[in-house]
């Protein structure tokens, strides 16, 4: 049997796993939720959930990967064949997410390129983003498919070089630069006239906005942000060295993920509030692509040195997106390698070709294919809903039941203790068996109620 690849050091693993966790959700959804649900109160709730709920799910998946040295399909089947379907479900999720995530990554490259070449005025227009994703422009550089292809090839190039020479080296470069860019952009944002109103709005607790929905929103954001229930942490765990302290590594990943999310709020909330004359409605009313590609170019266009600011911002967004898409594609490649017994290069080529084909509907879904709807949604929105809102909570509930009540939490505890003391063991046992499944069920129900228009998160 061929020896499995591994990260060369704990810091290499931490940076790669943190890079996977730090993605577009940190940058375009966290600031919106913090602004909507009580500012500092939301931050406190989020941090408490990170060190309890998020910690429990993440350490479980990484321990499963490190103990079995397998990707998610093989890991579950090896431990109990009755739960092989859970491995396949976890494997299906990155296959669905990777194509549409790369489509959005292509949008990010497009915006970075346009800011870098000084086309800020056009991008601040009301219809620019809608026209671009609809493919209304003429020429190769105005075609969403072109940027989607570039982004997929960039991601695949890193994965092709393997765990040590590709993913780890890329993470060692991208993550420190991402942190430095985040700090630099956040500091500049705070120097803007009127930004202090936004800072107060972001940091000071507003208890009147805190409710059960606040906790549900924080749980959902944390769950989706940390790359859980999609096979990534199991795959990366399988590359982790046995002697590296597992609990400390998870704690450091949590710090990276939460820290970048917090900095995203510092970058975006003060700048948008300053732009809107002290009014936070542009933040509270926008999340996702609307905030990133619609509101922020207008904000940058109103600033002195807005072109430089926008270029730096979209560069860090690109780095955040790449670290996540690399982990998504690596998870797919790892599964293809394990199941089809292919070498890395062949598995990467096959997986990349599949991602390109599967991404076409999402890429064209706002243009030539806009007339086709799935559950009333465009292709990209449907794939996002079915993977994030349905399959991921179901897979995570299954994992909690599997580890907590079938093979037993001792399986994970032994793996953690093999590389150091398990300081949060008692917390872990209670969270895994009883509290986390209930919280995950609440996320699932909340997302379904949101889809049917019963609640708004």
Nutshell version of this structure?
This protein has 457 residues and is mainly alpha-helical. The protein is built from 21 helices and no strands. The protein has helices at 10-21, 24-28, 30-36, 40-68, 72-79, 84-116, 120-123, 128-133, 144-160, 162-190, 195-203, 212-225, 232-238, 246-275, 281-284, 289-301, 306-340, 344-364, 379-407, 410-417, 425-451.
Report what the structure shows:
The radius of gyration is 21 Å and the shape is globular. The termini are far apart. 76% of the residues lie in helices and 0% in strands. It has helices at 10-21, 24-28, 30-36, 40-68, 72-79, 84-116, 120-123, 128-133, 144-160, 162-190, 195-203, 212-225, 232-238, 246-275, 281-284, 289-301, 306-340, 344-364, 379-407, 410-417, 425-451. α1 (10-21) packs across α17, α9 crosses α10 and α10 (162-190) runs antiparallel to α17 (306-340).
Write the layout of secondary structure elements.
Elements (H helix, E strand, L loop, with lengths): L9 H12 L2 H5 L1 H7 L3 H29 L3 H8 L4 H33 L3 H4 L4 H6 L10 H17 L1 H29 L4 H9 L8 H14 L6 H7 L7 H30 L5 H4 L4 H13 L4 H35 L3 H21 L14 H29 L2 H8 L7 H27 L6
Helix pairs in contact: 1-10, 1-13, 1-14, 1-17, 3-14, 4-12, 4-13, 4-14, 4-20, 4-21, 5-6, 6-9, 6-17, 6-18, 6-19, 9-10, 9-17, 9-18, 10-14, 10-17, 11-14, 12-21, 16-17, 17-18, 19-21
End-to-end Cα distance: 48 Å
What percent strand?
under 5%
Radius of gyration from the CA trace? 21 Å
Quick one: overall form?
A: globular
How many extended strands?
Answer: 0
Which blocks of ≥5 consecutive residues have pLDDT under 50?
none
Decide which structural class fits the backbone: mainly alpha
The helical percent reads over 70%
Give the averaged pLDDT, no decimals: 94
């Amino acid at each position: 049997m061929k020896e499995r690849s591994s990260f060369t050091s704990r810091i290499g693993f931490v940076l790669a796993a943190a890079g996977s966790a730090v993605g577009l959700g940190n940058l375009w959804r966290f600031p919106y939720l913090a602004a909507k649900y009580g500012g500092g109160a939301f931050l406190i709730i989020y941090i408490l959930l990170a060190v309890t709920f998020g910690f429990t799910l993440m350490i479980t998946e990484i321990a499963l990967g490190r103990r079995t040295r397998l990707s998610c399909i093989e890991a579950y089947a090896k431990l109990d064949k009755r739960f092989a379907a859970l491995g396949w479900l976890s494997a299906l999720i990155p296959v669905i997410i990777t194509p549409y995530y790369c489509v959005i990554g292509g949008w990010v490259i497009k915006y970075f390129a346009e800011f870098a070449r000084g086309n800020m005025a056009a991008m601040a227009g009301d219809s620019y983003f809608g026209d671009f994703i609809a493919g209304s422009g003429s020429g190769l550089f105005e075609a969403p498919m072109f940027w989607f292809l570039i982004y997929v090839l960039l991601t695949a190039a890193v994965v092709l070089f393997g765990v040590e020479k590709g993913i780890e080296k890329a993470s060692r470069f991208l993550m420190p630069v991402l942190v430095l860019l985040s700090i630099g952009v956040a500091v500049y944002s705070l120097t803007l006239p009127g930004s202090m109103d936004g800072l107060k709005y972001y940091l000071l607790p507003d208890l009147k906005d805190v409710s059960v929905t606040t906790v549900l929103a924080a749980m959902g954001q944390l769950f989706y942000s940390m790359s859980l229930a999609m096979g990534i942490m199991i795959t990366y765990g399988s590359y982790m060295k046995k002697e590296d302290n597992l609990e400390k590594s998870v704690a450091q990943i949590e710090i990276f993920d939460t820290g970048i999310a917090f900095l995203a709020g510092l970058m975006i909330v003060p700048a948008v509030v300053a732009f809107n004359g002290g009014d936070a409605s542009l933040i509270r009313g926008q999340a996702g692509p609307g905030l990133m590609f619609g509101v922020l170019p207008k904000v940058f266009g109103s600033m002195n040195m807005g072109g430089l600011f926008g270029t730096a911002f979209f560069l860090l967004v690109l780095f955040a997106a790449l670290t996540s898409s690399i982990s998504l594609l690596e998870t797919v490649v790892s599964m293809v390698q394990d199941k089809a017994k292919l070498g890395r290069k062949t598995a990467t080529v096959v997986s990349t070709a599949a991602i390109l084909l599967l991404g076409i509907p999402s890429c064209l879904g706002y243009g030539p294919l806009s007339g086709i709807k799935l559950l009333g949604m465009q292709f990209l929105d449907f794939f996002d809903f079915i993977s994030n809102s349905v399959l991921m909570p179901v897979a995570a509930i299954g994992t909690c039941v599997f580890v907590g009540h079938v093979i037993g939490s001792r399986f994970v505890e032994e793996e953690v203790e093999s590389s150091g003391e398990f300081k949060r063991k008692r917390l872990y046992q209670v969270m895994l068996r009883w509290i986390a499944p209930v919280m995950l069920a609440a996320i699932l129900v909340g997302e379904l109620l949101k889809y049917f228009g019963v609640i708004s998160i």
